[in-house]
Each structure stands twice: as C-alpha cells, then as structure tokens.
Design goal:
four-stranded mixed β-sheet, 167 residues, alpha+beta, 51% helix
Length: 167
C-alpha cells in the first residue's frame, strides 16, 4: 500500500492537484474542491489510499470541461430512480479515472483490491440513499467484483468548485 500511495500521490500532483491532510468534521473522511484533495489523517491507511484514488476521479469529473454536462445531470435530476442511475454512473466513472491513474503510475497487482473497494463504496452510498443513514462500512463489504476498466483522463481546467466530500 505504501508503494501505491507514493505513486498515486505523485501522479495526482503531476495532474496539478494539491494533496493535504486536515482534521475533518465527522462523518467526512475526505474532501475535494477542484484544486485540492484533503484526507482526514484519522482514517486508516488503506482507506486513505482508496480515498485518494476515488477523490481524484471525482476531481477530474468536476474540472474536465468535457464532463460538465454529466456533472450538471447529477445536480439537476429530481426523479429518485433516475438520480440513483446517474449517481451510479458518476461513481463508477470516477473509479475508472482512478484506475487510469494507477495505470499511468505503473501500479499493478491491485486491480481486484481497488475494484472491490469501489463495489463496497457503491453499496455504502446506495444504502445511505435508501435509508438516509450512514451504514456501517463493514456491512457493505463486497469481494470478487468485476474489474474496473480504466478510462482516459480528459484534459483538465483546474478551478475552484463547491466542496464535495466523502463520508
């Protein structure tokens, strides 16, 4: 995991984002604002590695001009079932950018780990929206998920956006 952290954090900085540690108000574990990715240092290291990849993927979505319409769809969808489909696509697109970053940085052998984390995260998010309560992470763990396929990272135009967070 240390090698993953070193390679991925370097790649994120090379894409122009700043990485910082800061104490965040629970239940927040990480935040991003289009310019920086912030991780709460109290989060376990394995989760920090996932958050770095995941929040990088979301940061790409919010600052890539070619993806602006997709982000708008997420904000402007009022139908609940449509929102959940759009949210699913949004979460998995972010995951694909995270996998691409792993590829760019020469990270191999962790595809199943990452894919299972993405699947677990989706179950966690889905349960939150179903129950309007944050579920215990341990009740959402899945294994053997389909491997996330990398997606090319589009050109970025870094800019401040409203703070978004992981919980």
């Amino acid at each position: 995991m240390v090698d993953l952290w070193v390679r991925v954090s370097s790649g994120i900085v090379k894409h122009g984002f700043v990485i910082e540690y800061r104490d965040l108000e629970p239940p927040r574990t990480g935040i991003f604002d289009g310019l920086r990715i912030t991780i709460d240092p109290d989060v376990g290291f394995e989760m920090q590695c996932f958050l770095l990849l995941h929040l990088f993927g979301h940061s790409v979505q919010w600052v890539a001009p070619s993806l602006a319409e997709k982000v708008g769809e997420l904000r402007d969808t009022s139908d609940r079932s449509r929102f959940m489909r759009v949210l699913h696509d949004y979460e998995f697109e972010a995951a694909r950018f995270g996998m691409q970053l792993m590829r760019e940085r020469g990270v191999t052998g962790l595809d199943q780990w990452y894919s299972d984390f993405v699947g677990t995260d989706w179950r966690y998010v889905e349960r939150f929206y179903e129950t309007e309560r944050i579920p215990p992470w341990t009740e959402c763990i899945v294994n053997g998920c389909s491997l996330i396929q990398p997606a090319p990272i589009p050109p970025l135009a870094l800019r401040q956006v409203d703070v978004r967070f992981a919980f």
